[in-house]
Amino acid sequence: MDQSLDSGGVNGDRSSAGHCVKSEVIDEYKLDTQEDQRVKDAYSGLAQYQCDECNFKSVKKTDLLKHVNVTHKGMTYQKCHVCDYSTRHSSTLWKHINALHLGIKYKCDTCEFRTGYKSALKNHVDSIHFGIRHECDICGYKAPHKRAIKVHITNVHLRVKNNECTLCDFKTCHKSALKSHINSVHLGIKDNKCHICDYSASRKTLLKKHIEGVHLGTKNNKCHLCDFSTIYKSALKEHINGVHLAIKDNECPMCDYRTSQKPALRMHINSVHRGIKNHKCHMCDYSACQKSSLAEHINGVHLGIKNNKCHLCDYTTSHKDALKRHIDVIHLGIRKHKCPVCNYSTSLKDRLEQHINGSHLGEKKYKCGTCDFTTSHKNNMKKHIDCVHLKLRTQKCDLCDYSTTHRNRLEKHIDANHLVKEKL
């Protein structure tokens, strides 16, 4: 490390050093400054903190505090010549300049780790090379930093989340997490892009987890009750609560839909109640609110790829949930949605509603544009058009030239014509 820079940064002639810093690195960081201004402009409409003495507004509470201290109380702040960072302490400012703008790094003697801060180097050596961990007295959680334990206790055990989003109900105990949330969810800023696919994230850690889970297949958080695995601890917890413990705390305010996952509730509201389905199939008029659902549709309907196979029969599907319903209904006989008027039962709530509307209320909202056929089921309309008007018979018998549009009709045909019944 250049000791002259280090000593000049702390005890030397700071005004001349600051001028030198400005002249040397201002051009190099010009683009970054423009990018910071773009983000700043995007944040300008989100300002929530208003000064009581003037018209100043700020997104961050700390910026408002600095404004009050400098403008109305006459305090002085040390400002960075390259970016908009400022602090009341000169030593802190020069640590910032040395680390971020001059690239002065403290290097670990054991590995290639580098940092601009001595304290960060000490924490690295203690945690990585000496295995020193600070432990939570409540649950045994371990972390390399005392501050991380404090944040853990505040967040997990005390459930204190002081950083609130002003645009939605998101809360967190981390300022950085709130900033990432606003950038990704409300401003659409996702600068960390995957080099393999079109995935992008607001944080490097999320991108790293995406690459490990999706492209490398590394999913270290495994369920001890089934074969489910994930890269996220929170996703594993939601899986256990929702699937195995049947805990579904997130309720839809417009219907009785419940789920253990907040993102699932958000997608339900967008797709079912708001009709927002941004992922559209380029081969038909199908649309979905999830990219994964669109991929399953294309694989199953257009490419004929059905990787989910039933272990009890030859049924195959491209959807995991469809396979689960098949096993529940066909093999286990589970049909929890029952008609209050007749003995009809089904595994799907929407099918029960269609049954009641079509069979008991006489509501048949799907009308054929070619003839006067009507039905309460969208798939029945499709089958009608394929069979009657397009003459498409996709279910073919392997033993003769018989074909039909319905799988159950093909099974009845095989039972009646090709299976030899043994006489007792």
Automatic annotation (TrEMBL):
Domain C2H2-type: 49-77, 106-134, 192-220, 250-278, 279-307, 308-336, 337-365, 366-394
SUPFAM superfamilies named in the record: beta-beta-alpha zinc fingers
Alphabetically ordered keywords of this record: Metal-binding, Repeat, Zinc, Zinc-finger
Any matching Pfam family: zf-H2C2_5
SMART domains, A to Z: ZnF_C2H2
Record-linked InterPro entries: Zinc_finger/UBP_domain, Znf_C2H2_sf, Znf_C2H2_type
Source superkingdom: Eukaryota
Record's keyword annotation contains Transmembrane: no
GO molecular function: zinc ion binding
Protein name listed in UniProt: C2H2-type domain-containing protein
